[in-house]
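Hey, can you fold this one?
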Amino acid sequence: MTEILIVYKGDSRIGELHKEAEGYRFCYRTDWLDHPTSQPLSLNLPLQPEPFTTAASRAFFANLLPEGQLRDYYARKFRVSPEDDFALLEALAGDCAGAISLYPPETGPIPGATADNYRLLTAAEQEQLLDEAYVMDPSFLGEEKRTRLSLAGMQNKLPIAYIDGQIGLPLDGAPSSHILKPQNHRFPSLVENEAFCMVLARSMGLDVPDVTILPIRDGAYVVARYDRTTDVNGKIIRLHQEDFCQALGVPPRLKYEINGGPGFADCFQLVTRCKNPLADRIKLLQLTFFNLLIDNADAHAKNISLLYGSSRNPSLAPCYDLVCTAIYDRVENEMAMKIGSAFHPRDIRREDWQEFVKQIGGSIKAVISPLRKVAEALPGTARTVAREMENRYGENGIYSAIIEKISERAAATLRCTSDM
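Sure. Predicted structure:
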């Protein structure tokens, strides 16, 4: 049984994950610590020769793995305990969020992905992939021993390579370039919902990756990975990133503030450690306002990330997972992070915005003025984007339903901030 997993950043060995009776511990390699361009794996795992505690190690690595039913499914598939992070990382962590991958000592990432490392799917195989229940498991292709794909979160998704308009399955731990999400029978038109909200965010000036809806079955959402780029030869290159739970040392089960997870005060304090803290504070404010006004109750700390360049200090990553959750009756509409003392948007009062400003720092005017500008502009912009989406993808009642929620939330926000 594997007792050590080698942690790679790109092609570089940067550390080791050691299995222990109580879990596992991460330690940087000496040659990585001595490297002139070395970077920390996480703001919560600074460069140091001493091994990290099990709790600190888990907070980063557990956040690389799927959650909920997806995690249970893969635990059954690989015949390991759902609580065994180490075994699941060994099975899945060949292509994760960011530039990190994990392998047993006798193996490792491929030195350079070529066309041979991607299996292009036929139209029939694409349809069959969507038939594989809620996990989109590509094992039916006969390549299950060669695919090591892991994306965190609860939603059905699959890392893919989108090559010349075709869907490719990365093999042998080769990097993916996009994420594919199918329709969800529990949440009708979720594909159109997320695509609309992402395009709307871009129209409002937020930084978002490219998105499209593919005409597979009744539609599949495809989003470009912001943690991937290509070199001059077209080879896909991984970029290192971490989500806010990882950076704050918070395990995935605590991603919601109501469960003891991060709140806005924690998130805004975190961006003070970014390369350009003022610019990223403004971006985080805009994201906060946008999520509130589209009625996205799932904007937790795992849905905000940091992206690393050549500096040891990261920058706020582009926005992702933007969805209007309020249109689904089965979704609890309490926000993932409270505004002041209010967890539900309908409970937000003038005093809550005052408390919010105290929590994140700054002046009332510097926060409320841009909030009101977004609230004033968003409903009209949403109507314009809806027409664009219908022209491109066809009519769908989800757009008008989201616009109604946006209009209600914008009006309520303007009312309660009118004298601020």
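The chain has twelve helices and 15 strands. Let me know if you want another pass with a different chain boundary.
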